[in-house]
User: Which sequence fits this backbone?
């Protein structure tokens, strides 16, 4: 039996398939954003003009930034000399999301003790060491944590759920990138690490 190679797709057919994919995927994406908006926490206060919803390999759904990294008018931070008008400095990135939103780790790492973190991160924050990638990640305001200090983190593993634990302004997650074994003073902007992709 002689096998006949498949004919390459015609350009017109490829274009039709692309249009069909767009017609199918666009409403699904819109539904994801609307579902997130429908579950909005009435306690949320946003200290940014950015109304974009972002997806990330770190969490499920598409969500807005509440408090960006750096100088902020959010009232939770002491005045910082780096900021004007007696504003405080936020060492991480807060992303508003419904309680119970799943949190994932795109990379392999190891959970380390969070005993050095204060109560501002909630009762059970995560501190994950990604030594081979050269950073530690603090994740605040988690509800349920699926890994404990000493556990290895697999790439793609579900590691926690978002909550309002220690967060008076509603359910969200706080992401803070630090140097390996570094303290608060080593925190740097985590936005690129989170690979935020705009959806609306």
Assistant:
């Amino acid at each position: 039996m002689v096998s006949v190679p498949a004919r390459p797709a015609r350009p017109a057919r490829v274009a039709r398939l692309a249009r069909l994919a767009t017609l199918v995927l666009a409403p699904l994406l819109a539904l994801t954003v609307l579902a997130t908006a429908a579950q909005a926490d009435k306690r949320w206060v946003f200290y940014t003009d950015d109304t974009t919803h972002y997806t990330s390999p770190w969490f499920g759904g598409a969500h807005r930034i509440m408090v960006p990294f750096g100088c902020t008018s959010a009232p939770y931070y002491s005045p910082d000399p780096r900021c004007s008008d007696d504003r405080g400095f936020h060492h991480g990135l807060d992303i508003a999301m419904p309680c119970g939103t799943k949190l994932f780790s795109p990379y392999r790492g190891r959970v380390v003790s969070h005993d050095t973190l204060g109560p501002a991160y909630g009762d059970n924050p995560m501190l994950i060491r990604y030594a081979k990638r050269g950073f530690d990640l603090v994740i605040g305001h988690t509800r349920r944590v699926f890994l404990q200090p000493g556990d290895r983190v697999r790439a793609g593993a579900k590691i926690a759920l978002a909550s309002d634990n220690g967060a008076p302004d509603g359910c969200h997650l706080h992401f803070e990138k630090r140097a390996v074994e570094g303290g608060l003073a080593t925190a740097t902007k985590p936005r690129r690490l989170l690979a935020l992709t705009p959806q609306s």
